[in-house]
Amino acid sequence: MVPREAPESAQCLCPSLASLNAKDVLRRKHKRRSRQHQRFMARKALLQEQGLLSTPPEPGSSPLHMWWGAPPGREAASRARQHPKAASGNASASRKSTPREFAGPMPTRCVAIDCEMVGTGPRGRVSELARCSVVSYHGDVLYDKYIRPEMPIVDYRTRWSGITRQHMRKAIPFQVAQKEILKLLKGKVVVGHALHNDFQALKYVHPRGQTRDTTYVPNLLSQPGLHTRTRVSLKDLALQLLHKKIQVGQHGHSSVEDAMTAMELYRLVEVRWEEQEASSLQTHAEDRDPDSSTDMEQYMEDQYWPEDLAQGTSRGTGEVQGRRE
């Protein structure tokens, strides 16, 4: 029996329905990202009102009035309230002339990472990588895979890691995952909480100047309440600074959620952090001794040699030249 063809009207409707569904998906995704951005900006504004976070410096302002004082930000806000039109005009002009107001990494060069580990070896005391998530500056998931450790798993640590035996069925070998992850991290500024644990699990060392560990955030904010412990957990930082609850429930941590939270914390103090990094780099550059390997050739000149040795070498070269002639 020959199947009847669908009416032309139905055939025409299918592509249009598909395009409408795609547009709806994009529209919902855009709304979700907009709401997330609004929540982030609201938290940032709350910290600024509490004096924990001042506004970015205006173009042309003195470097002394940077992030370390809230009054310049308040003065700028009061000027904006008094002269809204002038403030908006200046803001648009500054946006055109200076797209970025500080010398920090571009968003495309910044990622956040979080890893979950399981226990291997004697009594499960050796931590090995079992899941890794990498997110972009804006919180988009760039990588999220389960990873099979090199040694047999003794303790899944499900209460904290969220890893179970079922997850290992679709896990990829460690060597494959390591290559994929390091390819994403290469040349990037890497954000995370207690990053030394993640890098140790990856068997990797990232350049210190391209590492932003959010355990340092309380020191940047100079918030007395956060200095009760030497190292504040990501969960506590998220609750106190982002008013956000993470790592709740009985299913363990989510590496995606933790990576996104670390990136949000970094973005709260991004300007202050990058200004401090730039100043420390400049200080170290001034104090650093010149590299002897780059100046090796100039020290081979006669003026740096004792006279008797210099004469001996010049006499030797003359004899060699004479023999050649």
UniProtKB/TrEMBL annotation:
Main subcellular localisation: nucleus
Pfam family, one: RNase_T
An annotated Gene Ontology molecular function: exonuclease activity
Official protein name in the record: Apoptosis-enhancing nuclease
Keywords linked to the UniProt accession: Exonuclease, Hydrolase, Nuclease, Nucleus
Organism per entry: Vicugna pacos
Alphabetical list of InterPro entries matching this protein: REXO1/3/4-like, Ribonucl_H, RNaseH-like_sf, RNaseH_sf
Keyword Iron-sulfur belongs to the record: no
Ranges of residues in domain Exonuclease: 109-275
Top-level taxon: Eukaryota
Biological process according to GO: intrinsic apoptotic signaling pathway in response to DNA damage by p53 class mediator
Record-linked SUPFAM superfamilies: Ribonuclease H-like
Any Gene Ontology CC annotation: nucleolus
Record region (Disordered): 52-103, 277-325
Location of the protein in the cell: Nucleus, Nucleolus
Organism placement in taxonomy: Eukaryota, Metazoa, Chordata, Craniata, Vertebrata
